[in-house]
Each structure stands twice: as C-alpha cells, then as structure tokens.
Amino acid sequence: MTTSMPFLLSALVAVWATFMVVTRAVAIHALLYLVVALLALACVFDVLGAPFAAILEVIVYAGAIMVLFVFVVMMLNLGRPDRLRENSWIAPRGWIGPGLLAALLLAALADALVVAAPDGGPIAVIDTRQVGLALYGPYVLMVELASFLLLAGLVSAFRIGRHIRGEDAP
Amino acid sequence: MLALLPPLIVLCPLAAAAILLLSAGRMPPPAARLLAAGAVGLAAALTLWLAVRFLSAPPPAHRLDVVLWHWLRVGGFDARIAFTLDPLSLVMMLVVTGVGFLIHLYACGYMRGDPDVARFFACMTLFVAAMLVLVLSSDLLCLYVGWEGVGLCSYLLIGFWYAEAANGVAARKAFIVTRIGDAALLCGLLLLATRTGGLEIAGVLRSIQPGGPVAEAAAALLLGGALAKSAQAPFQVWLPDAMAGPTPVSALIHAATMVTAGVYLIARLHPLFLAAPAVMTAIAVLGLVTLLLAAGSALAQTDIKRILAFSTISQLGYMFLALGTGAWGAAIFHLVTHAVFKALLFMAAGAVILRVHHQQDIFRMGGLGRAMPGVFAAFAAGAAALAGLPLVTAGFYSKEAILQQAWRAGPVLWAGALLGAFLTALYISRCVFIVFLGPVRTAPTGRTEASMAIPLAGLSVLALTGGLIEMPDAIAPVHLLFRLLAPVLGPPTTEGAEGGAGVLLLAGALAPLAGIAVAWGLWRPRAGAPAPADDGLARAARAGWGFDAAYGLLLVRPFLALGWLNRRDLFDRVPDLLAAATRWGARLLGRMQDGQVRRYAGWIAAGTVAALCLAVRP
Amino acid sequence: MMALYALVLLPLVGAAAAWLAGRASPRAPWPVAVATLVLLAALLAYITWAVPAGGGPWLAHASAPWIPALGITLRCDMDGLGLVLLWLTVVLSFPCVLLASRDITDTPGTFHALLLATIAGVDGVFIATDLFLFFFFWELMLVPLYVLITVWGHEDRTRAAFKFFLFTQGSGLLMLLSILGLAFVHQQQTGILTFDYFALATTHLSPVLAMGLMLGFFVAFAVKLPVVPLHVWLPDTHTQAPTAGSVLLAGVLLKTGGYGLIRFVVLLFPDAAIRFAPVALALGALGILYGAWLSLVQDDIKRLIAYSSVSHLGFVLLGVFSASPLGVAGAVVQMVAHGLSTGALFVIAGALQDRLHTRDLRRMGGLWPALPHLSATGLVFAIASLGLPGLGNFVGEFLVLLATWRISPPIAILGAAGLVLSALYALTMVGRAFLGPPPGDGWPALPDFGARHMAVLGAAMALLLALGLYPQPVLDLSLPAPLLHSALPHAALTGGPRP
Amino acid sequence: MTAAPAQALLLASMLFALGLLGVLVRRNLLFMLMSIEIMLNAAALAFVAAGMRWHAADGQVMFLMILALAAAEAAVGLAILLRLHAAGRPTLDADTGNRLKG
C-alpha cells in the first residue's frame, strides 16, 4: 500500500496539532494549534480530490469560525490565574478514563476498517461544479435545512448574547 | 319407645345448656340452678328408667341402635350421628347422669353467691350432654364430637374464674395437652376410615386383622388420644393444674367422668387393642408407671385438691393397667367405683375449702373432724374406698379385681400394683390425719348446706357399698357387673390362679392396712405442728417429677422462642429485598444523570463504543 | 338464564345508586346498599329455586357475544360449587354492610359503591366461564378493594394496599399470560380463537406446556388463597383494611383462589395438576403449620386472625390437590366455614379497635366483664376457628385430612398437628383479649354489642352449627361440574381422579 | 497521487478519538467547544473520504452540511459561553454546569 507524501505529511501535522489543542493550557495557544490542524485538514481534503471542500475549510473554518473563537477569547479577558487553573484541571489523573475510552473507540474504529477496508482506487477530482449540481439538485432540501439551521443559530446567538451587559446583572 | 330415650336423655342437658347460653346472663341465678339441676336430674331419672327397661327386657343381642341422621356422606365415606345402647354405654350413662346429678345438686350450694352462675351451669350441662354423646355414639366420628366437646367444657370450666390469669393458663394447658392426644386420635380415625371405609364402631371392629401393622398403628394412635384425655404418662401434666376450676368441676370432669373417657374408649374398642399385643403391653406399662409416679407425687403435695388430682391420675393408672392386661370388666368396675368415691372426696374437700375460707393447704388445716363431723365422715368414707379398706369399701373390690388380673399377666405388674395400693393408703391417710385430726389451725365458719350434704351422704353410702355388685370368688361369687357387661366385653376371665387366690386376696387386703398403719406412725396427731417434707425427693415428687419443667424447657420454650424470632415473618422480607434491590438499582442509574456534562459525554461515548463493537463484530 | 347477568349487574347498579345517594345525603347510601343486598339475596334465591330438577351438574347458563372478532363472549355458567360460593358471598356481604360500614362517615357513598362493585366482581368470578370474562371480573374485584383499603384503611394503609395490589396484580398478569397461551395453542390446533372454558378444555397440551400454563394459573390463585411463600401481602392488608374490607377479603375474596384452583387448575390441567400435587400438598401442610405458628406469636389481633386464615386455607389447598371428591368437598366446606368464622372474627376485631383504639393484644385483657356479649361471641368464633367437631370448620378439616391420608399419611399427620396449633393460637387470643385481669385500673364503660350485632353474628353461628351437624346439602352441591358441557355423566369426577 | 480511503478514514478516527479525549478531559467549556469542532471535522473528513471512494459529490455535500452545523453550533455555544462568563461564572467550569437551574 502506497501512501502519497503530501497526505502523510498533512495527516501527521493534523494529528500533532490536534493533540496540542487538547493538551494546551492557554486558550489562545490551543486556538492557534486548532487553526494549524484545520489547515492541515484542508490539505488532506485537497489530496483526497476535494478542492472545494479544502477551500471552504480554509475560508469558513479557519477563517470565520476561528475568528469567532478568537473574539470570544479576547472578550474573556484570560490571564495568568486562568492558565494556572487550567493546568490544575488537566492533571494527569483525569486522563486515564477518557484516554482508555478514546483508545477503545479508536481500536473499535480501526477494527472496523480492518474488517471492511474500502479498496483504494485512482483519485478523481470532484470539482465545485459537480458539488454545486448535487447541492442544488437532489440535496436542495438540505440546503434549505442548513439555512434554517443557520438562521436559528443566528437568532438564538443574538437572543442569548443580547443582554450580556448591563441589565442582565440581576 | 326405648329407642327414643337415649336421644331424649342427651337432649335434656343440651336443651338446658342452650337455654342458659341464649339467656346471655339475664336469667336469675336461682332459675339457672333449678334448670340445670332439674335437667340433669331428669336425665338421671330417664337413664334409671331406661336401665330398668333395658335390664328387664333386653333387646336382641343386648344392643339398641338409634340412627339420628346421616352426617357426612361423600365420596364413599359415610358417617352418621347414631347412638348405640348396650350394657357398657348404659353403665357409663348411669355414672354420668347419676354422679353428674349429685354434683349438680352440690354445685347449687357450692356456687351460691357467684354472679356468673348461669355461665357455670351452661358449661356443666353442656359437658353432661357431650359426655353422653361420647358414651352413646355408635360411630367413632360422632364419638369424637363428644370427645372434643367434653374437652371444650373442661377448658371453659377450668378457666371459669377468668379474672385470675393463672386459671386461664391452666385451662389452656389442659386443652392443648389433651388436644395433642386428640390429634393422634384423629389420625387413628383417619387410618381406620381409610382402611375400613367408615367409622362405625361395629364395622371397624369387624374389619380388624389381628397382628397387622394397621391394627398396631391404629391402636397406638387411639391410645395417644386416650392417654392424653385420661392424664396418663407422658400427658399427665395438665390434670393437677386443672384444679384451678371450681371444685364441682374437679369432681365431675376431672375425677368422675371426662378423664375416664380414655378408659371407656379402649374398653369400647377392645378387639382392636387385642389385635395389637405390643400396644397392650404399652398400656399396661404406662398405666403402672403413671400409677406409681402419681402416687409418689400425691404423697408430697400440700394442696388438698392437688393430692386428689394426683390420686385421680394414679387411679386412672390402675384402670389402664387393667386394660393393658385385658381385664376390661375390672377397668370399668374401677371406673365406676372411682367415679363415686373420687367425686365424694372432691366434694367433701370442697365443703372443707368453703368452710375454711378457700384455704387449700392441708398444713394450715387440722382438727376439722370435730367442727364438721358430717364432712369428716363423708371424706373418711371416700378415703377408705380410695385406700381400699378391705371388705367394707367399694374401692377394695374393684382394686382387688385389677390385682388378680395383674397377677395373671405378670408378677411384676402385680407387685407394682400392690405397691401402688400401699402408697394410695399412705397418702390419703396422711391427708385425713392432717386435715381432720390434731389441733385446729384454721377455725371453720358457717355451715355446710343441705344441697351439699345430701350428695355427700348419698355418695358415701355408694362408696362403701357399691362394690358389693361384684366380688371375688374367694369371698362370695357375686358377678353382677361382669355378667351385665359380658355381651360387650366378653365373659370375665375369673379362672386361673385358683390356688393362690386366697393369698392374693390377703396381700391385697394387707397392703392398704399397712399403708394406713405407716401413715399413723408418721402423721398421727402430735404436739408440734406437722410440716411438709422438704428434701430433694419430696420436692421432685411435689413438682410432678419434673415433667412440666422438662416439657417447658424442651418443647414449649424453643417453639415459642423460634416463633418470637420469626415474628415479623421471614417470607415478608423477600418482597422487601426485591424492593431494596430495585431502589439500589435506581440509585445507581440515577447517578449517571447528575447533570455533569462531561460525564454525560462519557456515557454517550461508552454507549457508542459498545454499539460499535456489537455492530462490527456481532 | 339472564338472571346470571343480573347477579353482576344488580350490585353494579346498586353501586351507582349508592354513589348518587351519597351525593344527596351522607346517610342515604347505607339503606341503598342494604336494599341492594336484599335484592341480591332474593335474586340468588330465585336462581336457586329456578334450577331445574335433575338437569345435570350445570345449574344455569347464560351467553351473549361480546367481542366476536377475538372470540370473546359473555359466557356464564353456574354449577353447585359456584352456587355455594355465591351464597357465601351474599351471606357475608350482610355483616359487612350491616355491622361494619354504617359507621363510615368519610364519603360513605363512594365507600358503599366500591364495596358493591367488589361484590359484583366476586359474583362474576364465580360464574364466568369465558376465560377473558373471568379475568375481567378478577380485576374488577381487585381494583375497588384496593381503593377501599387506600382511602378508608388504618394507619399504614398506603403501603399495605400497594403490597396487596402488587401481589394480586402481578400474579393476575401471570394468569393472563396463561390464558392467552392456552387460547393461542387452541387456535393453532383448531384455527378458532376462543376463550371459552369448555372449548379450551379440549386442547391437547404437551406435558411441559401444560405444566407451564398450569403454573401460571396456580400462582395467581396461590397468591389469592394464599399459599405460604406468597402469603406476605395478606397480614398487612387484613390489618390495615377497614373492617368491612377485612371481612370481605377474608370471607369471600380468598375463596376465589380456592375456586380458581378447583375450576381452572385441577379441571383444566388434570394431568399436570396430578404431577404437581406432591408439591402442592407439601405447600399446603407448610401453610397450615407456618400460619398457625406465626399466628401464635402476633400481638396485633387482626394480624393474628390473618395468619390463622393462612393456616386454615392450607387445608383448602390440601383438599383441592388430594384429587378426590372427598377432598374437594372438604375444601369447599372449609372455605364456607372459614368465611363465616373468620369473617365474624374480623367483625369482632374491628369492634374491639373501634372501642379500644388499639389492636394490640398487650393492651387488652380482662375484657369479659366490660364487654360480655362481645367477648362471648369472640370466644365462640375462636372455638369454631380451632375446629371443634360439630361446627363447620371441623367437617371441612376432617374431610380434607381423610382425603389427604389416602394419598400421603405423613402430610395428613402434619395437617392434624395444625389442629393442635390452631387450638393454641385461638385460645391464646381469647386468653389475652378477654380473660385475665384488666390492665391498670380496669376498663371504662364500653358499649357492648347490641341486638343488631348479636343477631347477625348469631345467624353466622347458626349457619356454622348447621354446616357442622348437617353439611349434606353443601357436600352434595360442592362437587364441581365436569368439564364437558354435555356428555360426561356426573360420576366422571366422583369416581376419582381423571387418568 | 494515491491515498487509500482506509487511510483517510483512519485519520478521521484518530482525530475523532482525540476530539473525544478533549471533550472528556477538559473542564473548560471553551476547550470543550474546540474539541467538538475537532470531532465535527473528523466526521466531515470521513464523509469526504467516502465520497472519494465512490467518486460522488455527496460526501462534499455532507461536508457543507457539517460546516453549517459547526458554524451554528459555534455561534450558539460561544454565545452561551459569553453569557455564562458575564453571569458570574468566569471560570467556565463545565462541572458546575449542573447548577444552571435555579
């Protein structure tokens, strides 16, 4: 089984960066690692022949959503005490159970892959046009659903975040 | 006409009991006394008339069957309420109604002033009715009705003065102990009914196969019932306590009639017992053992009624000894004479007790012979009959008949019975000497009523002369009773031991005289106050040789203790356990939903992993 | 004969009337209930009188479609067994209403309505021969009684009622499973879905299946009877129920268990029942001894009586599973006699609680001078309860023991030992409650039983005496009618156990 | 340029497991949100890899759906987070989340 170098590299970066996200104590560091992981994932998408997905990953995820996170982190006003508390919260003892569970999950998934490994084949690029045709053809209902979802998210985020200052105090 | 009489005789006391019960205490005491004594007196008169009619013109085969109605008829089993009149039941009826009437008469005087006299007489008349049913029944199940009925009346009357807690306990003890025997008797009936298809006495006796295990088992089970009812070892413990009842009750139920029901049962079913030799031996041995144990206990008692109670047990032992040796007629003879003289003794003792303010300790009495000569004479007559004073008392002749039979069955039995006769004379003479002779310790007051004196006089005469109906050949060949009973009990076995008959008679006559002489030596009136012996042997004898304590320790206490331990019902814990398990499980599951986001996520993940594992590798 | 339906409908109509009357006036429901019972007794007398002479073992019949799609009909048949138990129900309803329920002040309309509804359910149980209908009535008698206990019971009523409901309901579901299983097996064999008793009786069952289905029925009826390991609901329920509920429960509802054992366990599954008989006999003997033993050590008078019920009904189990007409007749007599004697004892216990405000025997004693009539009736029924010959209980116990002895003498001996224990607890109860010295400085003036109580209890005593001395009418009626509606002559069962 | 779908799926599995680890381990709501983003991305990757295997656009359509979902989730989640912070829970401790009520 051969593996292309770009896939391997970006995959490694993605896993490493993700691991760093999970283990960082400082929020902004974790966030930056998350951006790195997302960018590596975009590379993976590209290698898998999904350039449209790769571009959206960069623009929407790493660009828009992560900026949202950054804004929030800035508003949270985090400092040294937060970092120390964060360090105490991720003490090694708490890792055992979740680690076992995650390892078990990974093993189960890997096992599933061994049982029914999809055979590899030549990668054909599926471009934006094809995606667009599918999206506004058979999946048009899902587009509507996604728009509803986003609208609902917008409204609720607005509703929840409206009274943060001032009158909410009581 | 003759066939109407037995049911009518039963009906007299039964109707009186029903009226007294239904009046619910509203009947004035004189009316209640009149009704009860009148009803039993009427029954006695009818019985006497019946006896005359029966003896003057005996029905065919000397028996008269009166079927009243079919009681149970189902699935091949048939039981009837039916009476049989034959010489045996006639003799028993005469005893029950005759002695019963005199005791009722006596009770009219004895119970004067008791506010609850209607209840007393209701139970007494009911008892007479039940006892009559017992002796008249021609069906064993019908007999069982009377058998339990007399037990119930005994319970009610022992506990008559219910305000005293001890009386209630004694009553319950009497009922329960006899009930144990009743259960054995019932099992015997079940066995017989299964084997013979019915419980009619004649049919049962016809179908007996001698020596078979069925006969042995049935006889043993019936013997259990008889032993308990007649207070024989090992069931004798209830009778001394039963003296808690009023004295007429002790006289009627616990001396004259009910306790002899066991003797009657065995005599009635004697072919069954003849078919079971091992059981016969057991009867004789148990009778002898009881006779000696109880005589020993009587010797150590201080309560006059308890002396008489142990004496009753001892005399019943004589009857069982006779039964065990096959001397049915002798047993019935002694039953009759004992009914007379023991009723007399109890009633005389009751008269004494009334006059000395319900004092029952003989060591606080004394010198009463001068103050109440009539009662003294009556008691002395009874005591002489009990001791078996030669030639002039009824007790001598009946005891003599038993001794003769015991000699034929075996010298050991005879020697034991003779020792018993000596002890009997010893303890009753002790009682007479201490109570009636010597200095006065408690001054008697009042007078003995006429209604009490008349029965005493009548029974005194009977106690002295009643034995003349049946005499040993060596004295005079009079066999009125045995010949009367012959159609039921078979011809009397008077042959054998001819050579030694005179010697035996002499020995039997000397033993009571020796007892009286020794008693005179020990307890004759002296200057100092007599005191009860208090060594270990005397204490053991006074306590009835520890049977009570042993039963309490081995049976009653463990049973009750286990019951109290399990009072909350072991099985009741099972549902509680189930409920606890459910609650525990609920708490466990509830802990999973504690509002901790991360734990929820963990559970979701765990569930996912589990589902995944199942989906991938089923 | 449509009169059979009226047996169920009349109490239900009476219940509705009592409820409506209760809305008008709190004193109105009682006369309504009494009138309903009088009508019911008249109706039953009419049914008894209308039985055609020599018309075979089934005395009356009624049938109408109910849910045709599922083969469920409103089929009712009455045989002698049913008739005897119906009479017991009607007779015991009178003490309930005449003696116990008049003093109910808390919404008496609803109380009487529920009481009558329970009676309607019991009536239905004794006549229904469609298994679905039977189950319907089985539940109908359960639910009103549950409410009766929960609302009008004593201090710990909620728990007791809940226990009662769980036990009877849970076992009832087992019975429903068995009913459905039997109906489905029958449908597989014949293609007809029916719940008809007589049709289902012809179903061929494999031994294992028959045993399984029989056990479903057995558990339901064993809980009701009750049989010893399943009896635990009974003492609590009896103790906490209002007096009328206790009387009805002990006198009548327990009998539905015995009736069901005869009608549905032994007759529907004769082979399985005979194979199961050794276990059932052992359980019966255990029940007799265990009930009597625990009865002896109770301090609560109602609990004592409740455990004595467990002991008495062990005889019923013995009789039913002795597989002989003798035993069944004995079981029926025992049920009737137990209903009368224990019902009366519960009336007396209830009266004691009303007067002394306690059921604790340790706080009683010496009541005879204070309450002579009450104490005397208590003594009389205690004596009946200990099985004195000449009273009904003895006839039942003797016949059962005789039938048992034919099969297994050791079991019969254990049963006879129960008679000793019954004397022990009955006399202990009398001794502790009525005899002995009164506690402290005597009892204050207490109202004794009046003429109404004495008359009703006296009637019960007279019935017991009649049952004890001339039980032949009940014995003749008590044999259950054979299964097949037409062909079998009556001798089929009287001849002994079916092969 | 070849990459077996199995390898892409393996990568998705690893990322998902890491994300799960983050959700379970971290007490800070902010980090939990980040971990959720990782898990969403892993799922998206699995879709894209599947689409690649079948040469179909459906995988990327699903990716778009997940993207919308993630955007909505981030918006609402971050809003809640800010509100919590403002309402006196500056530590953003998830373990005290059960005290939301009352």
Automatic annotation (TrEMBL), chain B:
The entry's keywords: Membrane, Transmembrane, Transmembrane helix
Listed InterPro entries: NADHpl_OxRdtase_5_subgr, ND/Mrp_TM, NU5C-like, Proton_antipo_N
GO molecular function list: NADH dehydrogenase (ubiquinone) activity; NADH dehydrogenase activity
Topology versus the membrane: Multi-pass membrane protein
Coiled coil ranges: none
Single GO cellular component term: membrane
Keyword Transmembrane (UniProt): yes
Source organism superkingdom: Bacteria
Record NCBIfam families: NDH_I_L (TIGR01974), PRK06590.1 (NF005141)
Protein's name in the database: NADH-quinone oxidoreductase subunit L
Higher taxonomy: Bacteria, Pseudomonadati, Pseudomonadota, Alphaproteobacteria, Acetobacterales
UniProtKB/TrEMBL annotation, chain D:
Molecular function (Gene Ontology), one example: NADH dehydrogenase (quinone) (non-electrogenic) activity
Membrane topology: Multi-pass membrane protein
Pfam families, per the entry: Oxidored_q2 (PF00420)
Gene Ontology CC terms: NADH dehydrogenase complex; plasma membrane
Transmembrane segments: 6-26, 38-56, 62-82
Top-level taxon in the UniProt lineage: Bacteria
Signal peptide: none
Function according to Swiss-Prot or TrEMBL: NDH-1 shuttles electrons from NADH, via FMN and iron-sulfur (Fe-S) centers, to quinones in the respiratory chain. The immediate electron acceptor for the enzyme in this species is believed to be ubiquinone. Couples the redox reaction to proton translocation (for every two electrons transferred, four hydrogen ions are translocated across the cytoplasmic membrane), and thus conserves the redox energy in a proton gradient.
Name of the protein described by the UniProt record: NADH-quinone oxidoreductase subunit K
Gene3D superfamilies for the chain: 1.10.287.3510
EC number: 7.1.1.-
Family from the record: Belongs to the complex I subunit 4L family.
PANTHER family for the chain: NADH-UBIQUINONE OXIDOREDUCTASE CHAIN 4L, NADH-UBIQUINONE OXIDOREDUCTASE SUBUNIT ND4L
Oligomeric form and interacting partners: NDH-1 is composed of 14 different subunits. Subunits NuoA, H, J, K, L, M, N constitute the membrane sector of the complex.
Enzyme class: translocase
Reactions accelerated catalytically: a quinone + NADH + 5 H(+)(in) = a quinol + NAD(+) + 4 H(+)(out)
Location in the cell: Cell membrane; Membrane
Biological processes annotated in GO: ATP synthesis coupled electron transport
Keywords: Cell membrane, Membrane, NAD, Oxidoreductase, Quinone, Translocase, Transmembrane, Transmembrane helix, Transport, Ubiquinone
